[in-house]
Amino acid sequence: MTITITAFERSPDGGKGLARDTRVRWALEEAGLPYDVRLVSFQAMKEPTHMRVHPFGQIPTYEEGDLTLFESGAIILYIAENNPGLLPSDAHARARAIMWMFAAVNSVEPPIFDLTTAKIVEGDKPWAEQRIALVKDRIRQRLAQLSDRLGDAQWLDGEFSAGDLLMVSVLLRSRPSGILDEFPNLAAYVARGEARPAYKRAFAAQLAVNTAPLPTT
Amino acid sequence: MTITITAFERSPDGGKGLARDTRVRWALEEAGLPYDVRLVSFQAMKEPTHMRVHPFGQIPTYEEGDLTLFESGAIILYIAENNPGLLPSDAHARARAIMWMFAAVNSVEPPIFDLTTAKIVEGDKPWAEQRIALVKDRIRQRLAQLSDRLGDAQWLDGEFSAGDLLMVSVLLRSRPSGILDEFPNLAAYVARGEARPAYKRAFAAQLAVNTAPLPTT
């Protein structure tokens, strides 16, 4: 059964791998699954055809036969549950790996994403500069807690898991601001993720899309 | 094996059921599992004893024998996977129920939670009023999309699932602002959740905590 995901026709980051299709590509590469990609323009993303697949008009989505999923966390968990290598077999370790997946998207990503809102969406507001400083401090607070927990471990809980895949993907989004590099153990953790062959293939695939000429219409 | 969760000694909402322990209590009640509650003060929450259980110094946590979890979404999924009634048995329907869990915490809760930040954390800033209006519009945009998807269905995807439990819990947090009631089908959906006996027991349990006299120290 062919797996098809969606991705930006052109990512706002120009190919830095920070759009959410990269984490899904990474999970598919870790699982050794081939996949097709359907590119979606910003305009098409908000049209009924795509909104039927993704009610919030975003990417990525995952289609395989009559299964359609959205939400990168859910897609990665589905891949992890149905293929070896991304979740431990011990029931408790498995529960903790899934816990780190939720921690990534619910506790670590929101303040990081909020910086994009403060810079891009509210960048023209008179309060932008003052508020950006506040949001950066909130990111630092969360990353300091995560840094304390990680300590000098290689991964968050034993072997590499889908929890690390999602956490590394989320932390990558804090690198352009310089905040990730304020926490050397987190920066090294992210670098370990990026060094995985599956990540490299995923990154290269999204880069190829984002540096290819746009289709002429 | 005894299940112990943590909750606020006194919730900031004074017992409206909006703190994240309520959703875990609800899942435990749906599953028919007895549980103990360890109450944590705001001060104790940031101390090493609790930070070892929850690296971000929050509630709820879940302890059962040698398993310790944090993140309400992960706790609810663990309960749902190990007890009947909260996840469908069909593999695709199960994946979609988990998708709605991630959608609740990653796509719907962040703008709703941001309103609390705008009102409470940044309420004394000169930009507070203008920014609150912006954040409210973002909540409306997301809820409009969810409202379109739900339509006149009872639940998000067939039978009630952990996806509905988490989505209803998150939507409840948009009621104090009045925004939930701008979407009659979402308000009715939330009311269906609140009408479930398990929800009522969970709500009553957290209310009892939040209206009891504080321990004198």
Structural overview:
The structure is a homodimer of 217-residue chains. By secondary structure, chain A is of the alpha+beta class. Chain A folds into two domains: 97 residues, 3-Layer(aba) Sandwich (Glutaredoxin); 106 residues, Glutathione S-transferase Yfyf (Class Pi), Chain A, domain 2, CATH 1.20.1050.10. Chain A has nine helices and four strands, in the order E-H-E-H-H-E-E-H-H-H-H-H-H. Chain A has a four-stranded mixed beta sheet. The interface between A and B is large, with 41 and 41 residues.
**Count of helix runs of chain A:** 9
Distance between the termini of chain A: 31 Å
CATH class annotation of the largest domain in chain A: Mainly Alpha
CATH architecture of the largest domain in chain A: Up-down Bundle
Number of domains of chain A: 2
State the helical fraction of chain A: 55-70%
The main sheet of chain A orders its strands as 2-1-3-4
Relative strand content of chain A: 5-15%
CATH topology of the largest domain in chain A: Glutathione S-transferase Yfyf (Class Pi), Chain A, domain 2
Low-pLDDT parts of chain A are: none
The chain pair forming the largest interface, with residue counts per chain, is: A-B, 41 and 41 residues
Concise synopsis of the structure shown:
The structure is a homodimer of 217-residue chains. With 217 residues, chain A is an alpha+beta fold.
Give the tags.
homodimer; Glutaredoxin; Glutathione S-transferase Yfyf (Class Pi), Chain A, domain 2; 55% helix; 9% strand; alpha+beta; 217 residues
